[in-house]
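re: that chain from earlier
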Amino acid sequence: MRRDPRGRKVYSRRGRQRNMFHTKHRFRSVLSVLLTMLMIGLLVVAGYLAAEPLSRLLHKWTGGTESTPDSSQTVTEPASETATEAATTAPLTTTAPEPETTTSVTTTGAVPAADIGLKSFEYVGRFLKENALKSSESLEAALQEIPAGCCVIVPLKIEGGALLYQSQVKGAVASGACKDATLTIREIAESIQSHQLSAIAQLSLLDDAYYPTYDTTAGFLLEDGYSRWLDNKPEKGGKPWMSPFSDSAAAYLQALTAEIMQAGFQNILCTDLDYPHFYDTDLELLGSPVQSKQNRAEGLIRVLNGVHQTASQQGGGAMYTFSLYDALNRDAEALQPVMLNTPSAVVYIDPNSFRDSFWHNNQKISMSGLSMQEKLQVLMPIAQELCGDMHLIPCFRERSFRQQEQTQAEAWLRENGYMQYMFK
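^ sequence. v structure.
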């Protein structure tokens, strides 16, 4: 204990002196440190030289297998294109057959499945409701209500990104997109086949929050390359949206297409090929890809053509869909027939949306006072003009017609050579 000059007692503890650079032994201490560092360096060099032979020996003992990263882990940072594609397109190693090797289910309906979309065959398309795929019993009941000879449009991927069948695509499983599905794609195809019906698979392409949550590179990224765009604040349930500019998103959609085609579906009805609503501030943060009209259109077309290419490799194809009302209001951004590879276009037409008048080719067209057939006489040539060389398949909402009007509309369509049309 020692005393502070101001009279306070100050307690200090003096242990044994352990300063290795003590003045009495400075040379010996320095030499000891140098020898120790030299020995450590020699050990490091020896370990490095022995590492490669040991790794080759271990590789030989284990039969040449290499470890791979767990592809089911959620991606939180931008990944390379190769790694991302492998994670989304490779099938799961489960007891179920892999999508790439699944034997196709041949449909034997009144309309050959591979010929759906061609002008030489006649069919009426009927849309299944989403709840029809909740169980085998609900699917059976729904199919019994569809008249023989019709073509069934099956909603397999719906708005929001959920899959209504048990997919084997890794990205679908890891993202939870098919977590609530109960039926396999093969069970759905076989059930439709048993009713002698043809089928078209309906896929909501870009309105998808599941997969961009799993793989952030599949959604819209800000110009910094890391920050994600959400449609609202996270605390208010903001969700991402699939980006048409993402290679990962394109690979995921093509993997789903291949899986569905191998189950027996020969055509893919592509819906929701559009962008979410962006505010001006969003456009500034996202940059030129979503600011340029041509860039936006080319991004959408790239996705659709990719799905069509995958489907066509197995004898089918994709079908582009758009609303006639939206197209006349310049809201169908992908409607550039010269750039689209799809042979058919399904055009949603609601005659009741054209109550008064509208403009087309700098002409004001009046619709007031026209009957349903007269409205079709006006609208159908315009729809065909917008489709270019694509084969037009009109689609109507049943609630837009009274029963007598629907009968008259179908009669008019057949009389004017429209042998393929749909009711939703």
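Residues 1-25, 50-120 have pLDDT under 50 and may be disordered.
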